[in-house]
């Protein structure tokens, strides 16, 4: 009996060892790819990370990619240190949201020289060896600012709420907006604050502004993120739906729900997460550039030709083009819906621009919980 048990123990040990060896071999066959994130204190960054993870876990990529995630915060030096450590740890590629377009250049060049593929998303890396995919951010700022200027007939007092300082996204959007407003001498920027692309921070900063510039002195708002908050604050202040100040900004789901005409029946809509007929343009802040960057990195590692730059359109949504997704199915999104029922998406700050036909692995579950559609 003891001999038999001993043989069983040996067999189990050998089986375990074989399993571990097979697992190690499988991991060794995969590309070790890091996701290097900077600032994460907003809904967009959370969603963007989820779709990268979802693509890595999809049937097409799960046997190719060993994805590891690190967060540097809004600290260029820490992100540089992390990138250097990733290279030392054997990274084959690094998908990165760069906190600065230039501060990482030396670390990125050193990584490229060692054969590591660097693919930046949304924000830009200017080092020539890096690959970039992002929305045309200058165009984003231009389209939204022009909409607001025309909505105000070229005159009025406006408030600007910007994004994360130092990123190319914030810099380009702000430059475009100021370039546009400079063409309209009747438009005056009465206040400007940094909103960090966060609904919560936007509320804090806008509350400070309204304390010295009451709503009756403000004619319009340009907000990189926070139009949902701005309309909510006006409603809370007793401003009726037909008197809301126009807001040009981002693609949060709550913002787009507010753009439907007052009285529109949308299941689950209530409070300030409801149709208000809010006069607005909601430029698409697509959440999938990071997933495209991962796709580009894998393609490059597999020897395929990859363009250095993939530029995405802002794809703005207006009161005339906002369209409800009642189920959130792939077919419904493909047909052109761009806003999700509050029964599906409970967080009004969640970004609604999730659909791209180029990545069928990514649907609603990828953006909500980081799980692929296949």
Strand content: 15-25%
Structural class: alpha/beta
Beta-strand segment tally:
14
Residue windows where pLDDT falls under 50 for at least 5 positions: 6-14, 16-26
Instruction: Provide the gyration radius in Å.
Output: 23 Å
Strand count, sense and barrel status of the largest sheet are: 6 strands, parallel
Distance between the termini: 49 Å
What is the succession of H and E elements?
A: HEHEHEHEEHEHEHEHEHEHEEEHEH
Work out the helix count. Answer: 12
Give the neighbour order of strands across the main sheet.
2-1-3-4-5-11
Helix content: 25-40%
Instruction: Give the oligomeric state of the chains in this entry, treating copies of one chain as homo and distinct chains as hetero.
Output: single chain
Give a verbal description of the structure:
This protein has 374 residues and is an alpha/beta fold. The protein has twelve helices and 14 strands. Helix 5 runs parallel beside helix 6 and helix 8 (227-236) packs across helix 9. It is globular.
What's the short story on this structure?
It contains twelve helices and 14 strands. The chain has helices at 2-29, 43-57, 76-88, 105-113, 137-151, 168-181, 199-212, 227-236, 253-259, 289-301, 330-334, 364-369; strands at 31-37, 65-71, 93-96, 117-121, 131-135, 155-162, 186-194, 220-223, 247-249, 280-282, 309-312, 317-318, 324-325, 339-340.
């Amino acid at each position: 009996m003891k001999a038999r048990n001993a043989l069983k123990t040996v067999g189990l040990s050998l089986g375990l060892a074989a399993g571990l060896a097979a697992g190690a071999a499988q991991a060794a066959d995969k590309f070790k790819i890091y996701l290097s994130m900077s600032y994460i204190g907003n809904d967009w960054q959370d969603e963007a990370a989820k779709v990268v993870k979802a693509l890595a876990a999809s049937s097409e990529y799960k046997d190719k990619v060993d994805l590891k995630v690190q967060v540097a915060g809004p600290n260029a030096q820490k992100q540089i240190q992390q990138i250097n450590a990733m290279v030392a740890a054997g990274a084959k590629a690094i998908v990165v949201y760069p906190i600065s377009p230039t501060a990482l250049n030396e670390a990125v060049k050193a990584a490229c020289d060692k054969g590591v593929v660097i693919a930046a998303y949304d924000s830009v890396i200017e080092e020539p060896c890096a690959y970039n995919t992002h929305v045309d951010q200058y165009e984003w700022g231009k389209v939204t600012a022009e909409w607001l200027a025309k909505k105000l007939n070229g005159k009025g007092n406006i408030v600007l709420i910007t994004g994360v300082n130092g990123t190319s996204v914030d810099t380009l959007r702000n430059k475009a907006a100021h370039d546009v407003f400079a063409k309209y001498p009747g438009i005056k920027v009465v206040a400007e604050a940094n909103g960090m692309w966060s609904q919560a921070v936007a509320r804090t900063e806008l509350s400070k502004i309204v304390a010295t510039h009451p709503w009756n002195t403000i004619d319009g708002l340009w907000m990189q993120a926070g139009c949902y908050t701005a309309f909510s604050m006006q409603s809370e202040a007793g401003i009726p739906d037909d008197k809301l100040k126009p807001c040009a900004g981002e693609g949060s789901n709550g913002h787009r729900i507010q753009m439907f005409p007052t009285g529109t029946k949308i299941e689950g809509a209530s409070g300030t997460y409801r149709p208000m007929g809010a006069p607005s343009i909601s430029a698409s802040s697509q959440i999938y550039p990071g997933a495209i960057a991962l796709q580009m990195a894998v393609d490059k590692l597999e020897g395929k030709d990859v363009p250095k730059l993939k530029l995405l359109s802002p794809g703005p949504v207006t009161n005339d083009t906002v369209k409800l997704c009642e189920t959130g199915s792939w077919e419904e999104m493909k047909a052109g819906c761009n806003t999700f029922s509050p029964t599906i998406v409970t967080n009004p700050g969640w970004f609604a621009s999730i659909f791209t036909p180029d990545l069928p692995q990514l649907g609603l579950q990828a953006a909500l919980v980081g799980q692929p559609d296949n």
